Amino acid sequence: MKNRAYFIPYPAVDKALSGDRECSGYFQLLNGYWNFEYFNSIYDVTGKFCEPGYDASGLKKIPVPGAWQNYGYDKHQYTNMKYPFPYDPPYVPADNPCGAYVRQFEINGSSNNMRKYLNFEGVDSCFYLWINGQFIGYSQVSHATSEFDITDFVHEGMNTIAVLVLKWCDGSYFEDQDKFRMSGIFRDVYILYRPEEHIRDFFIKTILKKDYKQAEILVELEFLKNPIAVEYSLFDADGRKVIEKGRAKEKLISFTINNPRLWNAENPNLYTLVLSTDNEAISTRLGVREIKIRDRVVYLNGARVKFKGVNRHDSSPVTGPAVTYEDMLLDLMIMKQHNINAIRTSHYPNSPVFLEFCDKYGFYVIDEADIETHGTTTIYVETKDGSEYPLLAHNPLYEDTILDRVQRCVVRDKNRPCVLIWSLGNESGYGRNFENALKWLKNYDADRLTHYESALYPPNGYACDYSNLDLYSRMYASCEDIVNYFEGGNWDKPFIQCEFVHAMGNGPGDIEEYYELIEKYDGFCGGFVWEWCDHAIFMGKNERGREKFYYGGDFGEFPNDGNFCIDGLVYPDRRPYTGLLEYKNVIRPVRIIKANLKEGKVTIKNMLDFYNLKDYLYINYHVTKNGQLVYEGTVEDSDVLNVKPHGEKVIYLTLEQINEGNCYVKFNYIQKNDMEFTKKGHVLGFDQIEVSIEKKYDTESKIDSIIKRDMLNRIGIEAELADFSNNTGGFDSGTQEEEKRISTINTRESDRSLIVAGQNFKYTYNKNTGAFDQMVYNNEVILAKPMNYNIWRAPTDNDKVMCRKWKECGYDRTISRAYSTNVTQLGSSIRIVSEISVSAVHIQRILNISAQWLVGDTGTVAFNIQVEKNMEMPFLPRFGLRLFLPGEINNVEYFGYGPYESYADKHRASYLGEFRAKVKELHEDYIRPQENGSHWSCHYIKLLSEEGVGLAATNNETFCFNASHYTQEELEAKKHNFELEESGYTVLCLDYTQSGIGSNSCGPELSKKYRFDAQRFEFNMTFKPIVKQI
């Protein structure tokens, strides 16, 4: 059948108003278990399955919708770009796997005078159809609806449907999307019953006039045969009639709505339009809205709008592309809860019901045609000059193919108000075929915007026509690229990042920088994070009860792209990653842009496009001093919060007890009323503002009395801290008071080691490595294995490019060597000075270190580490000390950025405060293990066992720490999280700093300001073992 808009017929207006297609007597769903037979090759297929009277009861059953790879047939394959078969268009392998589906269905006698239309909403990759043994037709384009008129082939009573689905077809060259490649009938199958004469299609257009106070609605009708009488009614969201019954004039309906309630993502106001004929009613949700570009800026209903979006695939860890309505709604609910307002249907049209949900719940949609030919870039060519990218885009043989795929997307979804932008596809190059499709599209629907990022990749020497493209689209443009676009002076289209801040593994780490540019430039209309969810296959649990998620290569398939599909903001089962929490707070609905908290005033900015803040939220604020809550207040007065969209306002607060100590005010933005998916009281985001900060954290109040006495009040250690805080680079020789004290500390030295002992401790220092091997305090082992100087981290997915260079330089296998160790006594303390190098096998020196350690007679240890980096070497992943504490020391208290993992460029989901957690709770369980769970800008940390044994550490400056039961070697070695084995230790990394996270797994290089590339730096810290006094 010819393409048409998606809609469902109903027998009467009251049923149509429900919008529930399964309540329609004209809708017969054929989902369920079908008989199924799998064939490794089409040449193995016997024709019997489609013959009249064939008994399929002996076949196995398979669910529809579903993909046969999830039920033991064929095998899973994940590939990003490479075609899974030889590149030989339009041919695919002769031994083409396929599946035969058979089921019976009943036709009721009451429908004898009606036409019957069989619909398949999604079949991968193509299929042949038989009804009662008669061949009906063939269709392809996996993510498009295929409709067949089966009226003349069915009869009253039981009928048989047979479908043969092929794994590949010539269309597979245009469906090379980054996903698990699965096959079968993966979306709904149903029959629609229609009167002999009926509306075949309709196209709703809205025209806003008089400053958006009036809307003219046009409905263009198309009939199966001749025009028939059509009545129409319009209802508002409460079911009240807005337009009484009117009659169409030939093929056009026209009416006006005064003071219309406009549709947008923040207020998704919908009307219901009902079209009725003698024996049928059709309903559709109607959203009144207008998308325009003025002066190179995108406006919706006259307001400048920003897309805070994600790229979303249909993906379930259990059923693959066969996602249920519940799956769809869960995705949308989590998105709403995290301030996301836009979705790109990467890289194919989603289910038509998904778009209806987007209408209802308020999401802007880039609706993308089912086109991707990225594999052309991986075919072998001697000289890669870009000419391979548009091989199919510019080949006239495929002009109709590309046009058909664009049309099937646009025509089906043309009445969905959520669709603001049409995308012609993804990563397929550019050429005459796309230009022709764009011309058709702009002629067919001039009211929406057009987008196609691959327009940047035309054939060499081809004079491109970009006149029908509305947006300048980029993927993973760096911040510098964006600034150059706007500051260059010749930009002519709004800028959009259809993919950015790649969310693979621990990341993304650069969202804030991009969002600042989105706000800075009116012409930057937003971006879409790649991507929403991890694509993985749930494979049950292992013997330890750990869930197993498989990715590319785990099924032995070739080619595969490994864990490149594990790149979502949520896990496969939709648990949020910290990256989603980061994104949520970056795109919060209000921001503090100026603050003078000592005067009690802040300037807030409304980041929303349509809501006044007074109608949307209130503010709750907390004042903390040294991590302790000292005051809280609320701002909820409507006059105070009367801030229009994009507006700014100074508000005044009541603040107390902020004159000393480390004081911060955290502003929580709280949802005012219940909304779809979110309830009153939902936290929309926060800001934290520093009031005052002392150079050194208030150790006296935050490290317990043992540490207070030993670290501050005993004169020897007090002198040590003073020396470090003054950056003297070492320790003085002691004071007169120290000399009067009777020292209880002593040393014993051998060629390799130095033992420092006091009344209640014994520490072993390794003179070859320049660090401690063991620490025993009050007969309790505190340091269970030798500590080491550490510059390595288990590579994150975003480190993968840089990781190659790091490994070339031996960063992952460093060796520390102390050339000299000098020991002197300073009053009641022992000073140890070592000159050290850090290098690797066959690699020159990476670092030169001068380390000074001071051990007090109470067991307190202070260090000053001065480092000089070989500038021939690339920037460092990190620098610090790695300590191995007994595993039972597993309770953590710290003051720093928490409660989530935090890094220099990834800490907007966290805030400065005092936090307590178990070590295992600090672990972010990425499916491919990697560096995780670190905490940035910390002032102190304390780790204790249940018995009160442990370690506390502090610093004049802030530091980073990571506490884990896994070593970085284990995290790097294992491919999956369920394979991880705990070390038996609590591995504590005390870091001077770490490099940032970035999004270089597919995005730009890590920004220079987040690279740890200092040539010289100095790391100071004081730590003390703890044994609870009984």
Would you kindly provide a written description of the structure presented here, covering whatever features stand out?
The chain is mainly β. The protein has 3 domains: 452 residues, TIM Barrel; 104 residues, Immunoglobulins (Immunoglobulin-like, Sandwich); 281 residues, Distorted Sandwich (Beta-galactosidase, Chain A, domain 5). 13% of the residues lie in helices and 38% in strands. It contains 15 helices and 59 strands. Strands 48, 49, 50, 51, 52, 53, 54, 55, 56, 57, 58 and 59 form a 12-stranded antiparallel beta sheet that branches. The chain has an 8-stranded parallel beta sheet with strand order 30-29-28-27-26-33-32-31. Strands 4-3-6-12-9-10 form a 6-stranded antiparallel beta sheet, with no helix packed on it. A hairpin with a 4-residue loop joins strand 56 and strand 57. Helix 11 crosses helix 12. The longest helix has 15 residues. The radius of gyration is 33 Å and the shape is globular.
Give a nutshell description of this structure:
The protein is mainly β.
Set out the fold topology:
Elements: E1 9-10, H1 13-18, E2 27-29, E3 32-39, E4 60-64, E5 78-79, E6 98-107, E7 115-120, E8 123-124, E9 126-131, E10 134-140, E11 146-149, E12 157-166, E13 179-180, E14 184-185, E15 189-194, E16 199-209, E17 214-223, E18 231-235, E19 241-247, E20 252-258, E21 271-277, E22 280-286, E23 291-294, E24 297-300, E25 303-304, E26 307-311, H2 325-337, E27 342-344, H3 352-361, E28 364-368, H4 399-413, E29 419-423, H5 432-444, E30 449-451, E31 472-475, H6 479-487, E32 495-500, H7 511-520, E33 524-529, E34 537-541, E35 547-550, H8 578-586, E36 590-596, E37 601-606, H9 613-616, E38 617-625, E39 628-635, E40 648-652, E41 663-671, E42 683-692, H10 699-702, H11 705-713, H12 715-725, H13 736-740, E43 746-749, E44 753-757, E45 761-766, E46 771-777, E47 780-783, E48 785-790, H14 800-808, E49 815-826, E50 829-840, E51 843-856, E52 861-869, E53 878-886, E54 891-898, E55 911-918, E56 935-944, E57 949-964, H15 968-973, E58 985-994, E59 1016-1027
Parallel strand pairs: 26-27, 26-33, 27-28, 28-29, 29-30, 31-32, 32-33
Antiparallel strand pairs: 1-22, 2-15, 3-4, 3-6, 5-13, 6-12, 7-11, 7-15, 8-14, 9-10, 9-12, 16-17, 17-20, 18-19, 18-21, 21-22, 23-24, 24-25, 34-35, 36-37, 37-40, 38-39, 38-41, 41-42, 43-44, 44-45, 45-46, 46-47, 48-53, 49-50, 50-51, 51-52, 52-59, 53-58, 54-55, 54-56, 56-57, 57-58, 57-59
Organism: Ruminiclostridium sufflavum DSM 19573
Enzyme class: hydrolase
GO molecular function: beta-galactosidase activity; carbohydrate binding
